[in-house]
Amino acid sequence: TQAMMFLSAEGFPSATPYLTKDGNIMSLESGGTRPGSKKYMVRLLTYLPGTPVAKITTNAQILYEIGKLAASVDKVLSEKFQHPSVKSLHRGQFIWNLANVPLLDQYIYALGQNKYRAVVEQVIEQFKGKVIPKLSSFQACINHGDLNDHNILVDSSSASLENPQYRVSGILDFSDMSYGYYVFEVAIAIMYMMIESPDPLSVGGHVLAGFESILPLTAEERGALFLLVSGRFAQSLVIAAHTALLYPENKEYLTITAKTGWKHLMTMFEVGQEAVEKTWFETAHAYTTALAP
């Protein structure tokens, strides 16, 4: 909640809480009238207009804007956000932190024995060998950690149905915030923007260009991007499969990403790191060429 209030004050489209009559952000309320009813912490947030990115057909313009957003949010959080509880964002074994892809070993059983498991095992092993040793050289920051296509709201500032111009109108769900690295955020954004895209492999270059307009990556960070995007696919797909076994009644919701996620992850590995990176980096480079004086 404090991060949301901070970002709103910095000009980002983040919800803010209405204060209670006592001037508090939250209130402890009973969930029923019977004695012994559970109590819940309740807060009321301002309304954010817009449509989730998952509900639109993305274009290069909004993908670039989402990349800029990802870098800008992390940059201002890392440089300006000060609060006594900020230390709690050092979340160690938090399963959704991209540094913890190796922890998927303990959940991979949920996939059974199939081609999907084989590619996830490949992701984990390559991640251990090629990403983990380089983490200390990456640019550190505070990550939002979950800029997915349901957590970013957009609205259209143009009447053109053929080529709508979107702007980000809302950022949701700050529950996965943790200390990490700038390159984590761009990898997470790329992965989730691929989910519903009709041309998923082209997405990365546009998001990367927007991100690097705010925060350029180092050569080592760029070199890790393919495995970081793959690692986020693996996290999302494996944890969803594991959670669906625990809560089968929620399987449909939990496996939303799986509808296209497995196909996209498999395609990335079939096409290969070199070819995927070439597509991403050439697209991103085209922006810098176009913007050059």
Automatic annotation (TrEMBL):
Gene name of the record: Hykk
Entry keyword annotation includes Calcium: no
Gene Ontology molecular function, alphabetical: hydroxylysine kinase activity
GO cellular component terms attached to this protein's record: cytoplasm
Location within or outside the cell: Cytoplasm
Family that this chain belongs to: Belongs to the aminoglycoside phosphotransferase family.
Protein name per the record: Hydroxylysine kinase
Aminoglycoside phosphotransferase domain ranges (all copies): 4-200
A Pfam family of this chain: APH
Signal peptide: none
Origin species: Oxylabes madagascariensis
Function: Catalyzes the GTP-dependent phosphorylation of 5-hydroxy-L-lysine.
Tree of life domain: Eukaryota
Catalysed conversion reaction: (5R)-5-hydroxy-L-lysine + GTP = (5R)-5-phosphooxy-L-lysine + GDP + H(+)
